Amino acid sequence: MTVLDRRLPEGFEELERFVDRWAGESVEARVAAREESAMDDIREFYDAMLARANDAAALIESHNLHDLPDPVANLCKMLLGLAHAASAVEFIGAPRVRMAPYPTGVRVLRGPQPFG
Amino acid sequence: MATKVADFGDVANANLTQREGLSTAPVPIAPYHCRTFFEQETKQIFERAWLLVGREEEIPEPGSFVVKDITPTKVNALITRTANGKVQAFHNTCSHRGSQVVYATEGRQSRFTCPYHAWTYKNDGELLTVPDESNFFDFDKKKCGLTKIHTEVWEGWVFINLQPEPEVTLKEYLGDFAPYFEGFEYLGANSPVVFEIELDANWKVASDAFIETYHISAIHPGTLKDGFTSTHNPYGRLLDAKVFGSHRTVSMYGNPNYQTDPKHRVEAFAASLGETGNVISAATKAETAKYLSHRAVNPGKVPPWSMDVNHVFPHVQIDSGPGGFWTHWFWPLSENRTRYEGRFYMAETKSFAARMIQELYVSRVVTAICEDITSMQRTQKGLESGGKSHMMLQDSEIGIRHHVDQCIKWVEADTVKEALS
């Protein structure tokens, strides 16, 4: 990978493979990442992201949350994605809610900012 | 019944149902699936009651507007804030040939031009310009403004009334609920996170699911159970309930020993980032203390408390929890279809730690709503099957019983005064 291909800040190269799925722009996109991933893939992201969560948070907190450079913004969105991976791993034990229809039909018309 | 409360706390409220003057008999289920009853609800309740349609923070400044479908009626309401700050609802219907004037659902503009023939109105309803006006007959522009809908604002809540002349004032309609709830602190009210889903269920099936905690240990074992039940109160019996005319409040038990499970590692990570205080609403300690001190928030002022549900008849619940408030809106579409809207008020933050906690909260709300969808839709199917004529309700389901009672009362009442009596 060249420097130009990088979508995450230097030092987070091992998380690049999760960007496409887990750096969703909105709450809805991050919910969809959980719902549309296999449990093993969610767990893999969860373990990898949680292991770097403190480093990522420290880097994000050194910037203005509402004006993050793109690579830091991607890292921030992935850390927010970890909240949804946690719902699968820690709470419901599956990518989707047991017995709920899919698609669920739940829409998030407005999420918290930024990346809502 | 006498032992029920002694089991879990010091709130002396056993048999809330009879204390509040309600029957304990099984409750008819026809109001949940009968099309005729739904049509009567539309006419007798939604076309006569004062309807809560929004908060004034949705139209924060002169020129702000929102457009809402006031289901189950056919009314499409344009709600504006004019230059002098007045909030006013109008039928979104052009005086020319009846087209809808505003297609947007929200925005900021002080004039509206009907897309069909370009008639232009001011946001106080006045008709300003009509192309080729001289080709009309005996035309009086003054009489052709947008049609007003009776509108009142109470404590920041926008209410409308669709009667030609409301039979009762909003104050009369709210009755004893108004003094009980006045002064409530709306933390973070200008910044809601908004969820929406269309459910294959009657609007009362949906609202019933949000006003009882009896279902929590069965439906939400991973997401909510540990917060709402304990070994002392394993079924989450209510702390208290009170009816106010057609409105009601219930106060729900919370597990006083609830602690973040160590296996909830992402929550622990977020907490470790050091953000303190009320991160959901971003209110200060003093604001939060004032909010919590209000008589309607944890009315028993007891430690084992989780939240209160304040059901403003007919279709809105205003809930209060330790960190702030949120609202549920149940817009009936048909006898077995409802548009649910959840609004969870969270202030915009500059802190990543606070933003992370908000995302965890949102993720929990999404999964909890999903957990409720199936039981609501299956309940509707069960009710419609005709196998039962009545349902059995226990004491902690008093909010459901009171709501069905009130819907039947409004449907049968010849006048609003009679419905409120």
Helix-strand blueprint:
The complex is a heterodimer of chains A (116) and B (421).
Chain A lengths: L18 H4 L4 H9 L3 H13 L1 H9 L8 H23 L14 E4 L6
Chain B lengths: L2 H4 L9 H4 L7 E2 L6 H12 L3 E6 L8 E6 L6 E6 L5 E5 L14 E3 L2 E3 L6 E3 L4 E3 L18 E7 L2 E5 L8 H5 L2 H5 L10 E8 L3 H7 L6 H4 L5 H4 L11 E5 L2 E7 L11 H8 L12 H9 L11 E8 L3 E6 L2 E11 L2 E9 L6 H33 L5 E2 L6 H15 L3 H5 L1
Keywords:
heterodimer; A: 116 residues; mainly alpha; 50% helix; B: 421 residues; alpha+beta; Naphthalene 1,2-dioxygenase Alpha Subunit, Chain A, domain 1; Rieske Iron-sulfur Protein; 2 domains; seven-stranded antiparallel beta sheet; globular
Structure write-up:
The complex is a heterodimer of chains A (116) and B (421). Chain A is mainly alpha-helical and 116 residues long. Chain A has a domain at 22-92. Chain A is built from five helices and one strand; from the N terminus they run αααααβ. Chain A has helices at residues 19-22, 27-35, 39-51, 53-61, 70-92, and one strand spanning 107-110. In chain A, helix 2 (27-35) crosses helix 5 (70-92), helix 3 crosses helix 5 (70-92) and helix 4 (53-61) crosses helix 5. The longest helix of chain A has 23 residues, at 70-92. Chain B is of the alpha+beta class and 421 residues long. Chain B folds into two domains: 3-43 and 177-420, Naphthalene 1,2-dioxygenase Alpha Subunit, Chain A, domain 1; 49-166, 3-layer Sandwich (Rieske Iron-sulfur Protein). Chain B is 27% helix and 25% strand. Chain B is built from 13 helices and 19 strands. A seven-stranded antiparallel beta sheet of chain B has the order 2-11-10-5-4-3-6, with no helix packed on it. In chain B, a hairpin with a 2-residue loop joins strand 13 and strand 14. Chain B is globular. Chain A binds chain B through residues 27, 30-31, 50, 53-54, 57, 60-61, 64-66, 76, 79-80, 82-87, 90-93, 96-101, 104-114, 116, and chain B through 192-198, 222-223, 261, 263-267, 269-270, 272-273, 346, 348-353, 355-356, 358-360, 362-364, 366-367, 369-371, 373-374, 377.
